[in-house]
Design a protein that fits this description.
Helix content: 40-55%
Strand content: 5-15%
Number of helices: 14
Structural class: alpha+beta
CATH topology of the largest domain: Beta Polymerase, domain 2
CATH architecture of the largest domain: 2-Layer Sandwich
Shape: globular
Largest sheet: 5 strands, mixed
Distance between the termini: 23 Å
Length: 353
């Protein structure tokens, strides 16, 4: 992909590892282990680690419709996939997304979701050879290591989290203003997976993610900015807690590189939709859940829709997008909080340009 490659100095890298090791080992909630234990039973062989991410593992972000999300890091796709097509797709568009459903007939509810990815692909997608921001974008948010097969794997996982942050840091920095605060950088870094994927959530979700663990992000992202400035010379302190970019031409090149990556990520994101169609047996229930959970819009499920989901589902999908976009437009009218269309507001209320 040609992303900007840089390396933190040994002291800065050690500091980043320490912060991430503490964050990923924070005390679990009473129901945090439920899904990790379930998916390990489903795939008893070749599992190296389970990583919890998303609203289930973040303070104050759960909704009644929320469910747990985890990464299942494995050795080899052929050991866990009975279907050769699923294994092939997993290699081309990692991770493979699988849902756990409530039992019974009729409408079924999602009980959890897990992402299957090999250790080799996880390492690639956290480094400069990443093909999109799907995985690194999720792993640069606050995650929780639920289980590892040994301590060497834990150390390796922490190293991959550091790599993901270092890989995406210049991408996020290329999109913030010439002068910015740490919180501005945090919002843009957390928002990369929303810029780089077709998603139903709006930028208000990015703010909620940041506010839920603002102090943790300030500590981590402050250390990341210090590491980047020291290693590259492309940033300097500007006083009053702000940073200033140096070398305008270099940042113009970085911005072009960042947008190329994000455009490629969005294209690959659209390819994930037909993959879901090919691999998920409960498409209608999945669409209903995702529309309500992420866009706050209810889909009217009829017997005809269940019989002909592709023919009758498109009008419902377009309705969801219209209602979501209307809510976003109302939220961003003059006098209301938020940034400009398609952009996250910075910590000071300015739109990131």
């Amino acid at each position: 992909m040609g992303v900007f490659v840089w390396a933190a100095s040994a002291p800065h890298a050690q500091r980043l590892r320490e912060i991430l090791a503490a964050a990923t080992a924070r005390p679990p909630g009473p129901d945090w282990y439920d899904l990790p234990a379930t998916v390990r039973k489903l795939h008893p062989g070749g599992v190296r680690a389970v990583i919890g991410y998303g609203s289930w593992y973040a303070d104050g972000l759960r909704k009644p419709s929320s469910f747990a999300d985890v990464y299942l890091v494995i050795d080899d796709y052929d050991r866990v996939h009975r279907n050769a097509l699923h294994a092939w797709l997993n290699r081309r568009l990692p991770p493979h997304v699988a849902f756990l459903w409530s039992p019974g007939d009729g409408h079924r509810e999602i009980r959890g979701k897990y992402n299957l990815i090999s250790a080799a692909d996880l390492e690639r997608e956290c480094g400069p050879g990443l093909r999109d921001v799907y995985n690194a974008g999720r792993l640069t948010k606050l995650v929780w290591i639920a289980w590892v097969c040994d301590e060497a794997t834990r150390a390796w996982l922490i190293a991959q989290l550091v790599a993901a942050h270092c890989t995406l840091a210049p991408v996020a920095l290329a999109l913030v203003p010439e002068r910015f605060r740490c919180d501005d950088f945090s919002l843009e870094l957390l928002g990369l997976s929303y810029r780089g994927e077709p998603r139903l959530e709006g930028w208000e979700r990015v703010r909620a993610l940041h506010e839920a663990h603002a102090e943790r992000y300030r500590e981590l992202h402050g250390a990341l900015l210090d590491a980047f400035a020291s290693a590259t010379g492309l940033l300097e302190p500007a006083g009053c807690g702000e940073f200033r970019k140096r070398d305008r031409r270099a940042w113009e090149d970085l911005a072009r590189t960042a947008w190329r990556l994000l455009r490629r990520s969005r294209r690959r994101g659209y390819l994930r939709w037909p993959r879901i169609v090919l691999t998920e047996p409960n498409l209608v229930d999945l669409a209903v859940s995702e529309a309500e959970r992420k866009a706050g819009v209810r889909i009217r499920v009829t017997p005809a829709l269940r019989r002909h989901p592709f023919l009758l589902g498109l009008p419902e999908f377009l309705r969801v997008l219209r209602e979501r976009n209307t809510r976003e437009r109302i939220r961003k009218e003059p006098g209301r909080a938020g940034g400009t269309e398609g952009q996250p507001p910075t910590s000071s209320g300015r739109a990131i340009s």
